[in-house]
Amino acid sequence: AVELLPALWKECGDYQEAISAYRRALLSQWNLDNDCCARIQKDFAVFLLHSGVEASPPSLGSQIEGSYIPRNNLEEAILLLMILLKKFNLGKAKWDPSVFEHLTFALSLCSQTSVLAKQLEEVMPGVFSRIERWNTLALSYSAAGQNSAAVNLLRKSLHKHEQPDDLVALLLAAKLCSEEPSLAAEGS
Predict the structure, then answer these.
(1) Burial bucket for residue 60 (CB in 10 Å: 0-12, 13-18, 19+)
(2) Domain of life, per the record (predicted)?
(3) Could you tell me the fold of the domain covering 1-110?
(4) At what angle are helices 73-89 and 97-109 packed, to 10 degrees?
(5) pLDDT tier at 64 (50, 70, 90 boundaries)?
(6) How would you class 126 by CB atoms within 10 Å of its CB: exposed for 0-12, middle for 13-18, buried for 19 or more?
(7) Which of 22, 116, 132, 158 gives the lowest tally of CB atoms within 10 Å of its CB?
């Protein structure tokens, strides 16, 4: 029932009540299992990111002294998604790849790709393939202006024993190498 109430409010078109229902579900002691709580967190984060409804910040009365209070939908969604990633990394919830996709979208919106790289580095080994991890990290570092780190990761990814013909990695490597005269020969 706790999971259904926000969905019912959304169906009725009362988005502020849906937001309140999500927050109550996450803040109250409902004795929810970790996977149920993770689903609610993800659904709420996705709603905050994609609904187009501006949620008012959480009330100060429900906050613990000194805790962080998100100022807008984007901050609240990022916070929820980062908490979810931490739960996945600790084995407290089942891995859901869409959470990382939503976090990528959210952090890209606010130009925080270096934070995205840090989150990706903390994801447990085996969740992403080595090549996928290296390429995503390279893209994140490149967007954050850390081209040297990005090029080093692309060197690993494009090594002859890995995936030397990966088109996306080749294009990013060519772009980065064309911007740095000392690497121009490498990018061709």
Answers:
(1) exposed
(2) Eukaryota
(3) 1.25.40
(4) 140
(5) low
(6) exposed
(7) 132
